Amino acid sequence: MEAKVEFIPSGGVTSPKGFLAGAVYAGIKSETEDCLDLGILFSEVPCTAAAVVTNNRIKAAPIVLSQQRLRDGRPVALVVNSGCANASTGEPGLADAVEMGELTASHVGASPADILVASTGVIGQRLPMERIRTGLGQVVLAADGGHKLARAIMTTDTVPKEVAVRADDFIIGGVAKGSGMIHPNLATLLCFLTTDASVDLAFLRLALKEAVAISFNMVSIDGDTSPNDMVLIMANGLAGGKTITPRSRQAEVFKKALSRVCVHLAEAIARDGEGATKLIEVTVSGAASVADARLAARTIVSSPLVKAAVHGSDPNWGRVVAAAGRSGVQLVETRLDLYIGNICLVNKGCASAFSREEAVRSLDGSEVTIALDLNLGSGRATAWGCDLSEEYVTINSQYTT
Fold it and tell me: Which residues of 47-67 are buried (b: 16+ CB within 10 A; e: fewer)?
């Protein structure tokens, strides 16, 4: 019988055994009601860990440091701040990241080499280290502290993003942030995943890479990516089961559970896009390959013209077809079928006799589905994004002021 993957009500990054978290307001970002901006995620035992990081050639100091420590180490904790990216800050910025790790190590009783570091916020500014030194000493770790951590990593996010699932005898939890500067090949997002399963390192890296490919790398808000993006998973093995390897009975259920968590968080990021009023889900099927399906779906959901049309509930299907055509994937115009919701707008490459009023109603809701069938093969993929509103411009014209 296939193992079930069940969502845990109010679950989060500390749902798996042995994980604690906490957060405080240290004064790194402008204070708002119930504001938090500095947090720690801690495992009671060393973890097997893997990460996928930004493809941006400019990488923030915490990314550089964490990549170094992930090569050989078994981390026990992560320290993260919002409000300042600590990116493009040179050697002083790297020294600040190192100090954040050292302060955290002292606070949790670990070696600095076993502490990972992450930051998010404005690029080009130094961290206010005096405030961080004070703040880290005030972080209280707790089994329900993941909810605070979820709030502490928010920048322009309007809601925290967290989830946990149970599968077989283990749990996978996760927390993420992301609202703007979001585009495939990771975006301005941080995602921290935890599991109490024991997982072989090579398999953990593979499973994470596959999960990211169908989730976070299929989200686009505005076409930009940042130097700080990271998806991290830590596995502490405290569930007590056998180590999961590629040939284990639990290998497929682990990958399924991890993908569920990542897709859930990716959708949450798309839904919370800066200024968004609608979630857009684009599914491309019938592609010559999965790679083509992913590329076409990403191109459509990334198109500013498609996003603007969705915002205005304008069934301008030509923008969708044009985006697919410029994506570079293999397609034959006379084979294209396009649906918005349940309404067929295009059949075999030409306009169908659809009701404009019904099409507008399909676009008026808070969630809009677009389905494009290339009718060439079996490749299929889904991407998520949001509409483009005036509020997006307002938010990003005032981000540093």
Answer: bbbbbbbbebeebbbbbbbbe
What is the token pair recorded at 218? 């299929």
DSSP string of 233-277?
EEE--TT--PPB-TTSTTHHHHHHHHHHHHHHHHHHHHHT-TT-S
248 exposure class (CB count in 10 Å sphere: 0-12, 13-18, 19+): middle
Boundaries of every domain in the chain: 5-271, 279-397
Query: What pLDDT, on a 0 to 100 scale, did the predictor assign at position 259?
Result: 97
Half-sphere exposure of 153 (CA within 13 A, CB side): 35
Which residue, 234, 254, 240, 255, is CA-closest to 48? Answer: 234
Cβ pair 161, 215 in contact under 8 A? no
Superfamily of domain 279-397: ArgJ beta chain, C-terminal domain (3.10.20.340)
pTM, to two decimals: 0.88
Going by pLDDT thresholds of 50, 70 and 90, the confidence category of residue 397 is: low
In whole angstroms, give the CA distance from residue 398 to residue 401.
Answer: 5
Q: What are phi and psi of 386, to 5 degrees?
A: -150, 170
pLDDT 10s digits, 353-390: 999 999 999 899 889 999 999 999 999 999 998 887 66
Q: Verify whether residue 400 is a known catalytic residue.
A: no
CA 199 – CA 197 distance, rounded (Å): 6
Q: Are 175 and 80 a contacting pair, CB within 8 Å?
A: no
- Find where tokens 């969705």 sit: 310
Between 158 and 68, the more confident residue is 68
What is the architecture, at CATH level 2, of domain 5-271? Answer: 4-Layer Sandwich (3.60)
Q: What is the mean pLDDT of residues 78-98?
A: 96
Cα–Cα dist 2/137, whole Å: 46
User: Is there a shared CATH topology between the 5-271 domain and the 279-397 domain?
Assistant: no
Which of 89, 120, 188, 382 is catalytic? The answer is 188
Could you tell me which residues come within 8 angstroms of residue 9 by beta carbon, excluding any fewer than 6 positions away? Answer: none
